[in-house]
Structures are given as C-alpha cells and as structure tokens.
Write a structure and sequence with these properties.
By secondary structure, the chain is of the alpha/beta class. The protein has helices at residues 9-24, 29-35, 40-47, 55-64, 70-81, 97-108, 127-135, 143-155, 158-161, 174-178, 184-198, 250-266, 270-282; strands spanning 111-116, 168-173, 203-208, 221-226, 234-238. Residues 18-72 form the HTH cro/C1-type domain.
Amino acid sequence: MPPRSNPSARQRRLGAELRALRVEAGLSTEQAAALLDTTRTVISSTEAGRHGVSPQRLRRIASAYGSTDPPLTDALLAMCSDRTRGWWEDFRNLLPQAFLDIAELEWHARGLRVSTTTHMPDQLQTEDYARALFRAAVPALTEPEVEARVAHRVQRHRALDRPDAPPCEFLVHESALRTQVGGPAVLRAQLRRLTTAAERDNVTLQAIPFTAGAHPTPGQAVLYAHAPVARLDTVLAHRTPAPDDLHHTQAHLTTYHLHLDHIRHIALPPAKTLDLIHTIASQLPGQRR
C-alpha cells in the first residue's frame, strides 16, 4: 500500500503496535525486513503509520513476530481493514491534527470515561457553550477558526447519538456546572443538555460536589477510551481545550483508570446529580420561578 503523508491517529496507533510486537519478538528492523522480504525503510514507515498495511500482510507480520495473542491480532486486523472515511476528515487542513485525532478516537471507542473540572464535557457541549469557550481562547481565534471548532465539537455528539453508541461515563465537577460560560441563558441550556443526555441508556452522569474535597487530576480533563482489547486503550489528559497528546503506555492507562475509579467513588449518584443540576439551574439569574 502507498505511503501516507499525514497518517491518522488510528494509523499511527496501528504502526506503534506493530513496532511493539517486533520489539517484543527481539527483532531489529533489519531482521524484520529479512523475515518479511521487504526493506528496513518500509518497516520503519509502516511503524510510523505512513505506510498502509493490508489484512493479509498484517497476518504475515503477526506470524513472523510470533504473536500469541489472537484477540490483539483480530483488533489490529479490524484497524487496518476499516477504510471508511470519517466525518472528521472534513476538518483536515481547517483544524489542528489533535482535534481530528480525538474525534477518531471517540468514534472507534468501545466505551468512554470522561472527567472534567473547569468546563462541561466536550461531547455534551451545546453550540453556544462551545462558542463561548473558544471565543475566550488566548491568543484569540478568528471568527472562522471559532466556527470551525464549534462545528467540529458539535459533530462529536454523533459518537454518542448513533444507534450503536458505546457506554459513556461522565464525571463533572460542580465548579463546571456552576461556571456561567456564555452567561446564564447559555448555561441554563447547557444544563438541560446534560439532563437530556443522562436519560440515555448508554450514558451515566455523576457530579463531583464541592463537598467531596480534593481529588485526582484537579483542573485537568481526562478522556479514557476503551478498545476491543485493554492493550489498545487510550487516555487523553489535558488542561486546555486543544490537547495534543494521546497516551497508550500501561503506566498511564493504569494511573488514569485508578483516578477515574476514585472520582466515581466520591461523586454523587446519578439521581442526586440531576437534583444538583436542577438546583443550579433554578438559581440562575432570569430563571422563572
């Protein structure tokens, strides 16, 4: 398959896993090239995600590297077999690569766990709420840049709205629920969006009250995406609306899995979360009594 000048997150992850399999087999790039009857350049390009891999070739690679994990091989085969053009490709050359990577990650996830402290979860933001966030960016964004980001963020709702949407857990700090991003009317509509999302069978929404005190990852948003096999899970932890780093190491996955478990434990149950949201909405200026 021809080289790809700008590989997607999924392509880069597939290449990284092929490199990991080669390293686990104790093979150098030269030795792998000899086994697969190719060149060192092709091996390196494939592992960087710049050179496509067919399902047939992937099976040959797994066999040559002595892989003994059929579920992992099946998951990798699915990654290289899926050539569907994702909706996020419409934003290529309009937004930073990180925005496309996150959308692609969410779309293919088998489950999502999200925690936020300073703002509402990206996946549940209304158009007006997202626009207010992006207009507050420093350095300032142009209006076309703002609108492109807003359109992309609203499109991310599709990962949750589709018939086969994965289970999604949202842990939202009370500070995010109370911060009037865009003003009272925008926040009121945003709170309604949360309560509507919470009605879905695949969505669990829990608030972290001020009374819960300290907790892991303060001021940091966390997105944990489950894959078909745990080895392919991915975590994104960031402090700004434009993250640029996806983590796959076992150390990162374990750490943030534990963090999210702890936060879930101290958060309000779903029913009390809705009570808190209704209370906050009723206290907003302009609310009809």
